[in-house]
Design goal:
39% of the residues lie in helices and 19% in strands. It has helices spanning 11-20, 57-77, 102-115; strands at residues 22-26, 29-33, 44-49, 88-93. Helix 2 packs across helix 3 (102-115).
Length: 116
């Protein structure tokens, strides 16, 4: 489980990150990055899968769990690239990511983190 200090929870924080419009897409996962940080706070991360992606909550939650676990392992390995320069990150799952394996999701997230 991703530690509490790294979770993006407030609706206002999500809206502020979306407003920046700094995004990238890879393998069914889209990444929105917030402002570059000036202080030494940890980067907050949010995971979103819309109801339009799949009507079943079980499928949506599984995709969120896969993305969250992939990010947690990359955080543990210290393989996050340039992502630590940002205040907040939001990963959005799409229909293309629903049938993918954990390894494919992890590679997509790793590519996104290297790209931003």
């Amino acid at each position: 489980m991703l530690p509490k200090q790294y979770r993006l929870k407030k609706r206002s924080a999500f809206k502020a990150t979306y407003r920046i419009k700094h995004s990238s897409h890879s393998g069914g996962v889209t990444l929105f990055a917030g402002l570059e940080k000036k202080e030494d706070f940890p980067t907050k991360v949010g995971f979103v899968v819309s109801k339009k992606v799949h009507k079943r909550a079980v499928k949506r939650n599984r995709l969120k769990r896969l993305m969250r676990e992939a990010y947690r392992l990359l955080l543990k390995e210290n393989d996050l690239g340039n992502s630590q320069k940002y205040i907040s990150l939001i990963f959005i799952g799409s229909e293309n990511a629903l049938g993918k394996t954990f390894a494919e999701i992890k590679n997509s997230i790793k590519k996104l983190l290297e790209r931003i």
